[in-house]
Amino acid sequence: MTEAAGAIERDRTLVIQGLEVDTRALKTLARCTGASAIEAFAENAFRLRGASAHDDIATLCAAARLDWAWVPTERRIDRLKLVAFDMDSTLITIECIDELADFAGRKAEVSAVTAAAMRGELDFAQSLRRRVALLAGVPASALDAVYAERLRLSPGAEALVQRLRRLGVTTLLVSGGFTFFTERLRDRLGLDFAHANTLALAHGRLTGELVGPIVDADAKASEFARRIQALGLSAPQVLAVGDGANDLKMLALAGVSVAWRAKPVVQQAATHALNHSGLDGVLALFHPAIDPTTDDVTGG
């Protein structure tokens, strides 16, 4: 290894994590990267100290259903001040519009359009208007039913938000989905801000229209940028997490961006991709700090 290459390796740590971490796979990764030590620092999260880049890391991790990331030593959780989350298929496990379409008997049709839009194959604003139009006549009670019966937080979402709140990090939920759900999630999780589309209602039913401007990729990025500016932050102090093509512009504004179980185009653009870990795996992408409320080491 050259002196320059050695300096690069010393300035970053290889993090391995997953819902479950196979010991044999971890040891194989340590051996092939020449790691000097395996350090457990969170449940199912490990640092390989002194690891060097190796072509087999991605292949070995994919086979063992593990996520991996090179984390710079200067990236500390106590320097993080603002986090923006997408909602559908990120903070929660469902696409709310697809579940609402089920009440109109058009879930398969709407889901196909949603998936294409998230892959970046369709214009988001046009596709959203097209999908919302198919909801015309759905009773307003379907909104409550989707929230109560179908909406579930993604694994690790609550733990992540709780940790961020303890560290005093401002949180923003910015979504191409609907305010009915974002506002309830904001209050449920104690998020600071939420921004989304508003569904039009008349006589107790959805009209198939939206109220006000559409929250698309540009609007999501604009809202995120507004919060960054209002707090006087720089890119290294902000993080964004998303899964679809309409998150790309928002992710580009963050010093650290995470594609969580995301579409390929998003995984390629983000700083890190998490395909197997819970959402709280985001914390392992930062080096630890002292939790100001407990004096415990936290945040990775």
Describe the structure in your own words.
By secondary structure, this protein is of the alpha/beta class. Helices cover 39% and strands 23% of the residues. The protein has two domains: 3-73, Alpha-Beta Plaits (2-Layer Sandwich); 82-95 and 153-200 and 211-298, Rossmann fold (3-Layer(aba) Sandwich). The chain has helices at 3-10, 23-33, 57-63, 87-91, 96-102, 107-118, 124-133, 141-150, 157-166, 179-189, 217-231, 248-252, 264-269, and strands at residues 12-17, 37-42, 45-49, 67-72, 82-85, 170-178, 193-202, 205-211, 238-242, 256-260, 272-274, 289-290, 297-298. The strands form three sheets. A seven-stranded mixed beta sheet has the order 8-7-6-5-9-10-11, sandwiched between helices. Helix 5 packs antiparallel against helix 6 (107-118).
Assign the CATH topology of the largest domain.
Rossmann fold
CATH class category label of the largest domain? Alpha Beta
Query: Averaging pLDDT over every residue, what do you get?
Result: 93
Q: What is the element string, with H for helices and E for strands?
A: HEHEEHEEHHHHHHEHEEHEHEHEEE
Count the strands? 13
Distance between the termini: 29 Å
- Low-confidence region ranges: 1-8, 290-298
Main sheet specs: 7 strands, mixed
CATH-derived architecture of the largest domain: 3-Layer(aba) Sandwich
Global geometry: elongated
Strand order of the largest sheet: 8-7-6-5-9-10-11
CATH superfamily of the largest domain: HAD superfamily/HAD-like
